[in-house]
Write a structure and sequence with these properties.
Layout (H helix, E strand, L loop, with lengths): L1 H15 L11 H14 L4 H8 L6 H9 L8 H8 L2 H13 L1 H11 L3 H12 L9 E2 H10 L4 H17 L8 E2 L12 H7 L15 H14 L13 H5 L7 H14 L3
Antiparallel strand pairs: 1-2
Length: 268
């Protein structure tokens, strides 16, 4: 799951994340010092930069994980969907549709994305917020990848976005925990997508994609809506909505799984 989700956001973010100028490689602490200065120049407060990056260290496990990933599926759709969408997950998803019916209705009205698609994504990404969302400090993970020269522009942009999440007050550093590429929350947003698409739908003044189901589902809907998803239209392979979901996941097999799961949730 981590490699799958990383692949789609890396490809999307390559175009969306502006190049950051800090030099990669070399002494890690020198890199952090240079990045810190540029983050302040980009509008992040010195206090946030110091709090987040002061004493940050490299994570060799993150580099090892990144180097062994192969961002492809090696199963047929039938094989893959059988491991991801079973009767237990379908039943839980149907319960989520009922439990959050009023919330999902509001999100449908505002963003025009059907509830079954949102709940399917939610279930696949984190078992509806109850599963693994990652256990790694996002700043340390992203600083490690930003220093590495393989995709330094991308991850330096993500590290800057993570600092902005803290500065906006969306998540405190102690809650900025994620997966091996810095993905955050119940539907696994990279920080740049968190900043770009995040929605405060519960009205508490911050976008909390770790703890607030309202923010999670509305932000996921906002991402799809912004990229052309249309309510009431088909979402199967070959449709315009299937293409709109490409921003969520470039892999055809995964988008087919979202659609299959969504159909199962509503008894199609």
């Amino acid at each position: 799951m981590r490699s799958r989700h990383l692949a789609i956001f890396l490809s999307a973010s390559l175009a969306a994340t502006p190049a950051f100028a800090a030099r990669c490689g070399g002494d890690f602490y020198g890199f952090v010092q240079g990045f810190s200065s540029e983050a302040v120049a980009a509008g992040v407060s010195q206090s946030v930069v110091s709090q987040a990056l002061g004493g940050v260290t490299q994570d060799p496990a993150v580099l090892a994980f990144d180097r062994r990933q192969r961002y492809t599926f090696n199963k047929t759709f039938e094989q893959y969907v059988s491991t991801r969408v079973g009767s237990g997950r379908i039943n839980t998803g149907r319960a989520m549709l009922q439990r959050h019916a009023a919330l999902l209705s509001q999100i449908e009205q505002k963003f025009g994305v059907p509830r079954q698609i949102l709940v399917a994504i939610w279930g696949l990404e984190s078992d509806f917020g109850k599963g693994d969302m990652g256990k790694l400090p996002v700043i340390r993970t992203l600083a490690t990848l930003a220093h590495d020269c393989r995709r330094s522009d991308l991850f330096q942009g993500e590290l800057l976005a993570a600092l902005k999440i803290v500065q906006r007050g969306d998540l405190p550093l102690r809650d900025l925990i994620g997966a091996y590429a810095g993905e955050i929350g119940q539907t696994q947003f990279l920080p740049s997508s968190y900043i770009k698409y995040g929605v405060d739908f519960d009205g508490d003044g911050r976008v909390d994609l770790r703890h607030s189901a309202a923010d999670v589902l509305a932000s996921t809907a906002n991402l799809l809506h912004t990229n052309g998803y249309k309510m009431g239209a088909p979402y199967g392979e070959g449709s315009a909505n299937f293409e709109a979901m490409r921003e969520w996941n470039h892999a055809v097999i995964y988008r087919k799984t979202i659609g299959y799961f969504a159909d199962q949730l509503i008894g199609r």
